[in-house]
Amino acid sequence: MKDSRVYLRALEPTDYKTSINWRRDDEIWGMLGGTKYFVSEAYEKQWVEKSIFDSKDVKLAICLKEDDRYIGNVYMTNIDMQKQSCHSHVLIGEKDCWGKGYAVEALTLLCDYMFSERNIHRIQAIVLESNQASLKMHQKCGYKIDGLMRDSVFKDGKFQNQYILSLLKDDFEV
Ligand SMILES: CC(C)(COP(=O)(O)OP(=O)(O)OC[C@H]1O[C@@H](n2cnc3c(N)ncnc32)[C@H](O)[C@@H]1OP(=O)(O)O)[C@@H](O)C(=O)NCCC(=O)NCCS
């Protein structure tokens, strides 16, 4: 993506000072499939440090080119070289940066890396049915809906459905 306004970089040990604010935000928790948990500074610091030295996953920081501001994270996990597949995750934590196309640009950059450098064939994402921002964002990146997993998570006092989406290398256009 030549005209991207964001760039991806490795996580740095001090990033936890910013990302802890995202991890403590209830609106963000409500958009994610995982169970809400309470995060101490020590936990977040250790999570960032472990991520830096984790060679199994690809966990990167999203920054704005204009001022190097750290605005979110994007990851690829469950990398399986037999199936040539992995799972993608994206979070724009700085809410004033929502709706500006940054998630599409960041995820596209990492998908491009996974297809062209890591020889991945299929990238999967799981999205809460209620998270229309994430659904549209993934579709804009080229992901297609494979199906709807009914009552697949218990959140906010109720069972909720999640979309399973995938992006195949052949469908990917930068
Ligand atoms: C979901 C999230 C990643 C979207 O990031 P973003 O940078 O705001 O998304 P983009 O600006 O790239 O949006 C891409 C498309 O989604 C649509 N979109 C964005 N926010 C939307 C909203 N609140 N409702 C409906 N559509 C929305 C836009 O229409 C945009 O398409 P357009 O350019 O044609 O208008 C961001 O809100 C976020 O990080 N939320 C918390 C964590 C999360 O939900 N992560 C995903 C978990 S599966």
Which CATH class?
Alpha Beta
Number of helices in the DSSP assignment? 5
C-alpha termini separation: 6 Å
Give the helices and strands as they follow along the chain. Answer: EHHHEEEHEHEE
The CATH fourth-level homologous superfamily: Gcn5-related N-acetyltransferase (GNAT)
Q: Architecture in CATH?
A: 3-Layer(aba) Sandwich
Q: Please, what is the oligomeric state? A: single chain
Going by helix content, strand content and strand pairing, the class is alpha+beta
The main β sheet shows up as: 7 strands, mixed
What's the CATH topology name? Aminopeptidase
Our estimate of the beta-strand percent is: 35-45%
- Across the major sheet, the strand order is 1-2-3-4-5-7-6
Radius of gyration: 16 Å
Main attributes of the structure:
alpha+beta; 7 strands; 35% strand; 5 helices; 174 residues
How is the secondary structure organized here?
Elements lengths: L5 E5 L5 H8 L2 H6 L9 H12 L5 E7 L5 E11 L4 E8 L9 H15 L5 E7 L3 H9 L3 E12 L2 E11 L6
Parallel strand pairs: 4-5
Antiparallel strand pairs: 1-2, 2-3, 3-4, 5-7, 6-7
Helix pairs in contact: 1-3
Coenzyme A (COA) binds next to helix 2, strand 4, helix 4 and helix 5.
